[in-house]
Amino acid sequence: xxxxxxxxxxxxxxxxxxxxxxxxxxxxxxxxxxxxxxxxxxxxxxxxxxxxxxxxxxxxxxxxxxxxxxxxxxxxxxxxxxxxxxxxxxxxxxxxxxxxxxxxxx
Amino acid sequence: xxxxxxxxxxxxxxxxxxxxxxxxxxxxxxxxxxxxxxxxxxxxxxxxxxxxxxxxxxxxxxxxxxxxxxxxxxxxxxxxxxxxxxxxxxxxxxxxxxxxxxxxxxxxxxxxxxxxxxxxxxxxxxxxxxxxxxxxxxxxxxxxxxxxxxxxxxxxxxxxxxxxxxxxxxxxxxxxxxxxxxxxxxxxxxxxxxxxxxxxxxxxxxxxxxxxxxxxxxxxxxxxxxxxxxxxxxxxxxxxxxxxxxxxxxxxxxxxxxxxxxxxxxxxxxxxxxxxxxxxxxxxxxxxxxxxxxxxxxxxxxxxxxxxxxxxxxxxxxxxxxxxxxxxxxxx
Lengths: 106, 332
Ligand code: SF4
Ligand code: SF4
Hints:
The complex is a heterodimer.
Chain A: E1 2-3, E2 11-12, H1 22-26, E3 32-35, E4 38-41, H2 52-56, E5 62-63, H3 71-79
Antiparallel strand pairs in A: 1-2, 2-5, 3-4
Chain B: E1 14-16, H1 22-33, E2 45-49, E3 58-62, H2 65-74, E4 80-85, H3 92-98, H4 103-113, H5 115-118, E5 123-126, H6 136-143, E6 146-149, H7 157-163, H8 168-171, H9 177-206, H10 208-228, H11 237-259, H12 265-289, H13 299-330
Parallel strand pairs in B: 1-2, 3-4, 3-5, 5-6
Antiparallel strand pairs in B: 2-4
One iron/sulfur cluster (SF4) is lined by residues 10, 26-29, 31, 47-53, 64, 66 of chain A.
C-alpha cells in the first residue's frame, strides 16, 4: 500500500487492482479514474476519507483511515473523553445541519 | 389498504406518490431551520411509488424526510419500490458515515420486507453517498441482492434510470453557493443564543461597540463564511476564518481609535489587541465548526486543524479577554 497524499490517509496498491471501476463509481470526490483497465489516482489531495472505496473494492487494493470530518464532533469527543467518531458519537448537528440541505442526500 | 399475498406475515407495504404537500414543505423549512431536530422522519420500511410490478426498480433511502421526499419527488411518473432504512432520521451521507445507513440495516430490511418475493430482479439501487456505509460485496453475499450505486443527487435519477449509467458529473459531490446558502439558517438558529449571551455580556463589560464587534464576528463565521468559502484565500477552514475575522476588525478598530483619543498609549494598544485577537478567533472557531456541515472536509484535515489552531485560539482568546478587561477597568 502506498500513501498518495500528505493531506489524508488514502493508500492504494495498483498491484492488487483488478480494474473493476467500483472506486471510480463510489468516490464523491473524483479521486480515481479508470485507465487501461486499472484505477489511477488523479486527485489524491481531494480525498475526504469517507471510506466508500475501501469498503467496496473487491480486491482490497485500497485502505483509508475513514471517519467523519467534523470538528464539533471531535472537540465534543475530546471534551467528553469519548472515542472520536466513527460510529459512536452523535453530536447535535448530526441530525440536521450536515448536508441535509440540498438533494445531496437522496 | 389492499393486501398482497406476499405481504402476509410481513410488514405491510405503504403507498406513496411524488407530490409534495404543503405539510411536506413546512416540514422541510423546519428541518432547514433546525427546528424539532430529529423529528423529521418517515416510517422505515417498503413503499410503493405509483404501481410497481415485478420488473420495477428498488431504490433505497434513509428515513429522513428530506431524503425520502427528494427521492419520491424526483421520480414523478415512475413506478418503483422505495426501501427506507432506519437511520434515526439522519440523511444518507451522515448516516453512512456513522454506519446506520449500512450493510447490516440494509440486509435486515431486505429480508424483513421480503423484497425478493416482490421483484424478479436482484438489484438494489442505492444513493452513491450511501457507499461509505455499505459494502456491496457483503450485501450480495448475505441476501443475494447486488448493489448498484446511483447518482449523488436524487434529481439525476430519471436520467440515470434510462441506462443505469451515471456521468462523472452525477458522481461528483458539489458544494456550490445554493448548497451553502441552505445551510445558513440552521447555523444561525443554533448559534443565535450563544451570540445573544455573548453580546449581552460584552455590552455590560465593554459597551456597545465591543458587543457589536463580537456579534459581527459571529455573523461573519455563521453567515459570511459559508457564502465566501471558495473565495477566501488559504486551504484550510480555520485560517480562512482568521482571514475573514481579520477583515471584520478593520472598521471597528478604525472607529474605536478615532473615538477614544484620550486613552493612554498602553490602553490604546490593549484596545487594538482586544479587537484583533477576539474577532478573528471567534470567526475562526465558527469556521472550524463548519467543517462538519460540508462534504469537503476529511478527518485527517480536521484533526490537523484542531491540533494546529485550537491552542492558538485559546491563547488569543485569553490575551483578548485580558486586554478588554483592562480597557474596561482603566479606560473610563
Ligand atoms: S475498486 Fe479496487 S479493484 Fe476495482 S478499480 Fe478500484 S482499486 Fe481497482
Ligand atoms: S475515501 Fe472517499 S473520497 Fe477518499 S478516495 Fe475513497 S471514496 Fe474517494
